[in-house]
Predict the 3D structure of the following.
Amino acid sequence: MPLACAAKPSLLVVVLGLAACPLLAGCEHGGAGPPAPHYLQFNADAPRGNTVSVCSAHGCRHKSSFTFTHHDIAALTALMQAHRDRTAAGERRAIAKAVAWIEHRVGRATGTAGDRAGLDLAGAGDPGQMDCVDEATNTTSYLSVLAANGLLRHHEVLRPMAKDGLARWTHYFAVIRETGSGQRWAVDSFMHENGREPIIMQAEKWYVHT
């Protein structure tokens, strides 16, 4: 597995995390409620209609505005319908296809098409490269656009989750909640280069077992 990103949470987050989690067991925060606190934490911009602010350069230090056109939404609607069935599992398969499509589309417009997989320390400050904070923020925004256009029927978009573990750096990833069962699912594009389908798996099992 590639190294996860060395995100730098605020001092308050660190103190609260250490107080709440056993020293050797690892800990997690986020992954519940609306995404707004995550955007605030990293000075990122939440989606406004079909317009998103695409984070890059590590820690959302660079932001590029992108607006999905009517043609984009029509293409995503067709893609979701073609790849999902009536089940939540089918919708997650469709979500993976949609996120990959979006990354291709957005990457060409924002100069992030060449984003490399995993943690690339040489990419810090490079507007064309993303760390896990960028990826988690952007994927959350993309999922929110899908939801706002009525394309998510079995899931809701939650605040990204961060996990810490012994000998592993803090890692952020987008989270959706299956409305029927309440199960949370990680949707993580960070481990692959731009335009590849994200990893989707049960959030409590992804990255660090806690």
User: Anything to note?
Assistant: The beta strands are 27-30, 51-56, 62-67, 155-165, 168-178, 184-188, 199-202.
